[in-house]
Write a structure and sequence with these properties.
With about 80 residues, this protein is mainly α. It has a domain of about 35 residues. Helix content is about 50%, strand content about 0%. It has 3 helices and no strands. The longest helix is centred in the middle third of the chain and has 18 residues. The protein is rod-shaped, with a radius of gyration of 29 Å.
Length: about 80
């Protein structure tokens, strides 16, 4: 399949030199690099947040909102 990709001049010139030195084509070099980049991304697992729970009976009914949560979180801190 044909496609057009914009590549910086310096990168393209370096790729051409490498392809010539290795006696391969620019196309083969690009395809090889793209395969390696895609494979590396497949190996990286997605972030997964582990499940963390604590015992208890849920939210204290005396806490009536975020202001109370904030106030209690700063108790004993001088804040």
């Amino acid at each position: 399949m044909k496609t057009t990709v914009e590549i910086t001049d310096s990168l393209l010139e370096e790729a051409k030199r490498v392809a010539e030195r290795e006696r391969t084509t620019l196309r083969a070099l690009i395809e090889d690099g793209l395969r390696k980049a895609l494979e590396a991304r497949r190996r990286v697992p997605g972030f997964r947040l582990r499940r963390v729970t604590v015992g208890g009976q849920g939210i204290d009914p005396e806490i009536a909102g975020w202001d109370e949560v904030r106030r209690r979180s700063y108790e004993g801190r001088g804040g």
